[in-house]
């Protein structure tokens, strides 16, 4: 019998700045025999998320850093090809925390079975019906607490999380302003998704001035996907009792030093609540969140974009699209079935 090899992209060294192929080389590892209770999946989709860059570092984070020598960690969806568990049969499809690899092998308890019979494209479970959709839903509703008539500002607004945040805020009766990095993304926000205005942060000049001009009544909720200078500028435009939901700081993930924020005093001056969160804080409410997102999708109230790119060997350059803004919505890598 020919030996089956598992192609993996693994963390050989911790990146300083942007990760490169020396930090993350590939290797082909023979598949070991399954232990009792283990299940092996051939991966069909690998989720590419900005957070993965943080897990490559050994700075304190909300989960353990990826250990040197391990495959780069990522959410994956795969089809079961071998099972030593009565809970999974060959052919089942499941989602789990796996890696940048062709096959993921784990104890059955670590896998969440997905129901293909519903006809939902599997990649949706990594995006709008998965971690990024849930981040948007819980982050906005629980931390942002939007109220009808308020102004909600969202950064990385054309991305997987941001685009859903803005649409949910519109459904709450808010005025919604997005910030994104190209005119095409801004046009998608206002013409297709119903945002009231969009700012191209790469061409607008001074951020505080640009936000102030578009948000003439100030900002009540800032959903922060980027951190850094945009967060600082948003703070200078917040209204009394405003809320800042700190979701992510993508502008700093490849930076060696965090930018100095000048407007933190606004937290005191305007009695602002600022709260960070990770979507896992709401783990016990995921069924509620998925239910609500499905309802909106089916009702045609929620639109989303996915960019699906083929080929495990493209994983690193495709991942880097998140940081130059060339991804169009939820970024997913697709692997061949056989
Ligand atoms: N807290 C949580 O549980 C949680 C969960 C999921 C995601 N997140 C965070 O949410 C944020 C968005 O994630 P996502 O998965 O939805 O990715 P995404 O928005 O689909 O893609 C990342 C986008 O970030 C923008 N960006 C990149 N570098 C930037 C910079 N220096 N300044 C401003 N914008 C920049 C780019 O869009 P432009 O073209 O507009 O620049 C890029 O397309 C990230 O910070 C991520 O870490 C947090």
Automatic annotation (TrEMBL):
The entry's keywords: Oxidoreductase
UniProt keyword annotation of Transmembrane present: no
KW Oxidoreductase (keyword) present: yes
Domain Enoyl reductase (ER), residue spans: 17-333
A Pfam family that the UniProt record links to this protein: ADH_zinc_N
Protein name: NADP-dependent oxidoreductase
UniProt organism field: Candidatus Seongchinamella marina
């Amino acid at each position: 019998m020919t030996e089956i090899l598992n192609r993996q992209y693994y963390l050989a060294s911790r990146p300083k700045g942007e990760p490169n192929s020396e930090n993350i080389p590939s290797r082909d590892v023979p598949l070991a025999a399954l232990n009792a209770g283990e299940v092996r999946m051939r991966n069909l989709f690998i989720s590419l998320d900005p957070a993965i860059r943080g897990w490559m570092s050994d700075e304190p984070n909300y989960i353990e850093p990826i250990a040197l020598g391990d495959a780069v960690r990522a959410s994956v969806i795969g089809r079961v090809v071998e099972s030593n568990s009565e809970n999974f049969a060959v052919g089942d499809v499941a989602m789990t925390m796996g890696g940048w690899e062709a096959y993921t092998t784990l104890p059955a308890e670590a896998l969440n079975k997905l129901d293909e019979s519903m006809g939902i494209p599997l990649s949706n479970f990594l995006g709008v019906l998965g971690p990024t959709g849930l981040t948007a839903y819980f982050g906005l509703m629980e931390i942002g607490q939007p109220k009808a008539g308020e102004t909600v500002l969202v950064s990385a607004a054309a991305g997987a999380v941001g685009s859903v945040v803005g649409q949910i805020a519109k459904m709450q009766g808010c005025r919604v302003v997005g910030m994104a990095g190209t005119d095409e993304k801004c046009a998608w926000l206002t013409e297709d998704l119903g945002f009231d205005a969009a700012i191209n942060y790469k061409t607008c000049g001074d951020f505080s001035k640009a936000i102030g001009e578009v948000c003439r009544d100030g900002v009540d909720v800032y959903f922060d996907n980027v951190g850094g200078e945009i967060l600082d500028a948003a703070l200078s435009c917040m209204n009394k009792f405003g809320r800042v939901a700190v979701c992510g700081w993508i502008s700093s993930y490849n930076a060696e030093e965090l930018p100095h924020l000048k407007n933190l005093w606004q937290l005191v001056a305007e009695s602002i609540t600022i709260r960070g969160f990770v979507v896992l804080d709401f783990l016990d409410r995921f069924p509620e969140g998925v239910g609500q997102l499905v309802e909106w999708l089916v009702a045609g109230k929620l639109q989303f974009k996915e960019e699906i790119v083929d080929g495990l060997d493209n994983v690193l350059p495709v991942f880097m699209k998140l940081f130059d803004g060339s991804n169009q919505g939820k970024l997913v890598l697709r692997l061949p079935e056989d």
